[in-house]
Write a structure and sequence with these properties.
about 180 residues; mainly alpha; 6 helices; elongated
Length: about 180
């Protein structure tokens, strides 16, 4: 319910900020607002509670059904989540600003955020995979395919698409710059 409400608020906010822009930027702004809300509202409390040793938060308990490391202080998860909350959430907000104000650093921030998201996902799951997934619930179809694969896959697919978008835009800028230099020669 909380995740659905964050999605609704993120989409509404992103679509409002994206008025007058193309569909890709409106969708991206909705995603970024949702992404920032998730980092600050869902992951932030987990980091704090795990550091003080008091994880009773219902969202952490639900997440623990698919990944048991959300129930206790796992240093890898907490380290990645600190980076994700502070850097990932902040970069999402900076990127919203860069898109809305058409700043020159938009794609630098976009690439940085995407790499952080992909790195965070890798460091969250790879150590457990290397040990045979002792903390991941791979026996339940719901917990494995919906919670682990789908929900985490979104944070792989969207950053991957955004990296591709930045690549294409930077390539266009390079060719545009190269063509204008040739005119002056």
């Amino acid at each position: 319910l909380l995740c659905a409400s964050l999605l609704a608020v993120g989409c509404a906010l992103g679509l409002r900020l994206g008025r007058g822009r193309g569909a890709a930027d409106r969708g991206l702004l909705a995603w970024l607002c949702f992404n920032a809300l998730v980092h600050f509202a869902l992951e932030g409390p987990y980091v704090y509670l795990s550091m003080v040793g008091n994880i009773t938060d219902s969202d952490a308990l639900i997440a623990s059904l698919s990944d048991a490391r959300w129930l206790y202080f796992d240093p890898t998860i907490v380290s990645v989540e600190i980076l994700t909350v502070v850097l990932g959430g902040s970069l999402a907000l900076v990127l919203v600003y860069a898109i809305v104000k058409e700043k020159h650093y938009r794609h630098f921030v976009q690439i940085t955020l995407c790499v952080c998201e992909l790195y965070g996902g890798w460091m969250t799951f790879c150590p457990d995979w290397l040990m045979g997934s002792p903390n991941l619930n791979t026996n339940s179809w719901l917990y494995f395919w919906v919670y682990l694969v789908f929900f985490n896959g979104v944070w792989v697919l969207i950053p991957g698409l955004l990296l591709w978008q930045s690549w294409v835009e930077l390539k266009k800028m390079h060719h545009k710059g190269s063509n204008s230099r040739k005119k002056f020669q």
